[in-house]
Every structure is written in C-alpha cells, then in structure tokens.
C-alpha cells in the first residue's frame, strides 16, 4: 500500500475508441491523484460515458492503456472491479427490491460479512433509514440517486466513478450529492466524475479536464483554467440573487431530506438554516 | 473468481426469485393460457376429435399443454433479462467482482423454478378435470426430466432473445412461434389426420417426439425409440441455444 501511494489512482494513456465510423475517443491522456476529485467536463456526446465505461471494464478500448488503482483495465479487469465502483447516468437500483435489500444484495455480491449491518449503516448515513423498507420504485429521484450512490460505497472501493451524478436532479438533491462526493474525497476515496454542468466541476473538483472532440483539450485546477483567459476586469454589477438562490432559500437547502427523513443527522447545519428562514 | 460462481449465482437467483414472489401474477399468467386451452379442447373441441385411442382426451393432450406452458413461461425470462439490461443494474453487476456467468444462470434457474410452479398448477387443474395416470415413480421422474430439459432449452433461447432485443415487446415476441408449434404436432390431434406436407412437418418437428414420449410415460406404455429422438432434439436445442446465448453475451460484455 505504501509503495502504491505514489502512483496515480487512475492513469489514462492514448485511449482510443470508435463505434464503426464514429471516432469517439481519439487519444485521451490524463492522470488522477489519489484521494482527489477529478471532473471530466464535456458536452453531450463528447465521449465522457465511453471513457468511464472503458475505465470501469464495461468496454474495451481500441488503443492505448489505462490503469486503475495500479491495475490495467484490459489485462486485470477483475482486480479493477475489486477496486472500483460505478454509478452510471441512470440510477441502477433494483426497483422491485426495497432500499435495504438493494444494499444487502450489493454487499453480498462484494462477498462482505454482515451485509445487513452494512446496509443499515448506509441507510442511516444517507437519510434513508425510514424509507429502507419500501420498494425502490416508490422513491423520488433524489432518494433513488442517494440509494444508488450508497450502493457504490459498499466495500469502500478506493476509486469511484460517477457518471453525470446530478443529471435530472432538482437543486436540493444536487447539493446533497455534492456533499456526499466531498465527504468521500475527504475519506481518501478517489472520485472521477463526469458532468456537463460547469458549476458542478467548479464546486467539487480538485482538477478539471475538458474532453472535446475525443481529446482532453485542457487539464488543470480551476485557478489554472481561469488563467487561460485574459486577466479579470473590474466591473460593477448589481448583485442579483439567481433564481437558484431564491429557490433554495425558499424551500430550504435540504428540503427533500428533511421531509423524507426528518430524523436524519446529515447536513443538519444547512437544514436548520433553512428552517430559520421559514 | 471461480469460487464465487456458486455463491454469486445463489445470491442473484434469490434476487430474481424475489421478483417473482413480489409479482406472482407472472406464474399465474403463465398457467392461465394453457388452462384455458385445456378447457377449450376438453369441453368444446375434444368431443369431435378422434385420437384413435381409447384414452380420455385430457390424458391425450396434457403433454402438449405442458409444453405450451413452458413456451409461454420462458417469455418472462427474456422480459426480466431485458429489463435488467435496460435499467442499468446489469452494468452495475458487470462493474463489480461478480462472476460473469452467474448473471445469466440466475435468470435460467429462476425460469426453471417458475416454470415448474406453473406446470404444477396446470397439472393440478388437469387432475380436477379428470386427468389420470398410472405412471410409476420412474416414469414421473422421466417426465420431469424431459420437462426440465425442455425448460432449459427454451430458457436459453429466451436468454438469446432477451440479450439481443431492442424493445420490451421484441424481448418476449420470440415465444409466440414456440407456443404455436405444439398445434402443428401430435399434441392435440393425430398427425395422420393432417394433409401430407403438414403431417410431414408435424412428424419431424421436435414437439411430436417429446409429446409422444411424455404421453407414453404417463400411460405406462413403452416409449420406444421416440425417447431418443426427443432427447436428441432437446439436448441439441439446449446446446445450440446455450452456445448462442453465451456468444452474444461475450460479444456484448467482453
């Protein structure tokens, strides 16, 4: 482990992938430092999902190499699978099963001991204890996403891929996901997330790479990327709250968690702030 | 990895059996159509059908009804498999250290359990309607063995359909021809009563040998060479369907 520490969590070199005549990835290179949040930014169809699918062993690349947690994705897919977890674009939960059963299922498939206890801990952590006995089909979009992400945390995989984790979520659920991602990185997990929302990358990521036309055209910290543009000009602009600010203030930041599971402890700070405003 | 195959298969089979227990209508729906056909043939059409034997008509047609039960039951396997692929849960499993073959075997074993349950319901109704058999324990075991083989063969075909389907309807549509196949066989009327080309097809398609073997086993008569023809068909279809399904699976999720 100590010798591994110096190695990057993810190393991508010259990855290419085509679907028939469509060259989706044309030589992608980047590295992700252990315990950091790396955002892959790109418009729809830029190839973000294709890249994530290659890194999570669902797809084979045509050329180039990629290692995750020190394992080559093509040569050692099983070791990679032991080290990662993937949260895809669409919440991959079993709708017929309850939230708790979903967690127990994944814990069993990861061959862990005490799957029931693992499930209960995660339900509590994600404010789903009360909903845990209900079928996932009855969950709201935000709850489903929380369940989805909590399923990805089972077994503490050192690397987590989040493919557009907040697409289709309302603003509160989005902030909940952001808080979770930040907590993960604090705990030493490497997070690679894809997004098409610039503010999401700005909020979360230690490094941001822009994927465009199959290549990484920029890769740096937010500050470095900002320096690419001419120096900031000082302008006086009347500070208007954005509609999102208004919405979040009116409904309270974690409104959903507060109504779904009033007894949860997570994000209690912003929840109580929301209540004061009401 | 191989050490996990059995455990993973067990966990995933329990999952899809839970799906069935939560919507038992899939088992009942599977049984309803064959039961309706049985009522129709025994009480409406059966009186006019001359089977050329002195057995009761329900005894004559039950083997064919059981095959129809299985053919319609396996449609749910492709349906459930298709939904797993669509919903993204399959990708989650694929990105986890789960034995690859377990994901298909779980659906296949679930199909086996569900179809045996549906068949038990159909046989129960047949008993009420007057089905009687003097079959020995060995003959019953042989019948069950044939039905299990037929279910496995049809289920692996269902896996092919479920893996390659583009829409939900497409996933289950493959079973319609399978459900009709028994009608052009010795399942309901003797093949001798059919026009020559149809009779030729009926006599040389798999259902007739399977039906004739099962009928002989139920009647406590010698099965003759039919059983070998039936087994050859069953094992042949099973092997082809299995290889086909695994090839598609490997291509899609290498």
TrEMBL record, chain B:
UniProt-annotated location(s): Cell membrane; Membrane
GO CC annotation, single: ATP-binding cassette (ABC) transporter complex
Gene Ontology MF, one: ABC-type transporter activity
Record organism: Agromyces aureus
Name assigned to this protein: Transport permease protein
Keywords, alphabetical: Antibiotic resistance, Cell membrane, Membrane, Transmembrane, Transmembrane helix, Transport
Residue ranges of the TM segments: 27-49, 61-83, 104-131, 137-161, 173-191, 227-249
Domain ABC transmembrane type-2: 25-252
Domain of life per record: Bacteria
Family named by the database record: Belongs to the ABC-2 integral membrane protein family.
Pfam families xrefs: ABC2_membrane (PF01061)
UniProt GO BP: response to antibiotic
Membrane topology field: Multi-pass membrane protein
